[in-house]
Design brief:
This protein is α+β, with helices and mostly antiparallel strands and 204 residues long. The protein contains two helices and eleven strands, in the order αβββββββββββα. A hairpin with a 6-residue loop joins strand 6 and strand 7.
Length: 204
């Protein structure tokens, strides 16, 4: 059986270490992103946001339109990365019904902490993610992935805002948010390993 050169085996190991090891650095970016420690590290700016037991629970507030949770952090100096989080929305009939009201909605925004300008936005909107309760709501959890590669952040500081907008649409809407993290782009990490492997083969 042909023996693999040590350099080839080492290159494969490097790829595995980067792939499985580097994402643990997310703990230094988003504090308590899995909400295992309640809402520690997060700020409830308004409305009704509570510890759901391993996730952040957003519920409509009787007098405030917005239920807002935020955290500020400094993004790492990685060549490519993404912001990820899990979200699940549910709604039941109830509350005031205004036929002209907008539907309840949930948004996520990434802003400059100093100016409150959006770092990434949808056309005509300050948020990068939007969902409302007019679709078919299921128990399924949606995983949101936002590519942060190439952002010109200056100080690299960012403020992440989650907002439940409770309108008088005759529905009582709640949202679960969990597993918030900033991680390296998986594609880039895989290429690091394969790139090292190809380099060793060319030298063989």
């Amino acid at each position: 059986m042909e023996r693999k050169p040590f350099c080839v085996v080492f290159a494969l190991c490097i790829g595995v270490v980067v792939w499985f090891g580097q994402p643990t650095a997310e703990a230094t970016v988003v504090i308590n992103g899995d909400f295992s420690n309640g809402l520690n590290g997060w700020t409830v700016e308004s409305g009704n946001v509570s510890d759901g037991g391993g996730y952040a629970l957003f519920q409509e507030h009787p007098t405030q339109i917005l239920s807002t949770l935020k955290q500020e952090f400094a993004l790492p100096d990685w060549s490519s990365m993404q912001l990820v989080f899990d979200v699940k929305m549910s709604a039941t009939p109830g509350g005031v019904h205004d036929p002209f009201a907008w539907p309840d909605a949930f948004t996520a925004s990434l802003l400059d902490p100093a100016t409150k300008d959006p770092l990434i936005a949808n056309p005509g909107r300050t948020d990068f993610f939007y969902m409302d309760n007019t679709g078919v709501l299921t128990p399924a959890t949606l995983t949101v992935r936002l590519n942060l590669t190439g952002l010109d952040l200056g100080s690299r500081n960012a403020a992440l805002y989650f907002d439940l907008i409770g309108n008088d649409d005759g529905m009582l809407t709640s949202v679960n948010v969990d597993n918030v993290a900033v991680i390296p782009e998986p594609t880039t990490l895989i290429l690091i390993g394969f790139g090292a492997l190809l380099a060793t083969r060319k030298r063989a």
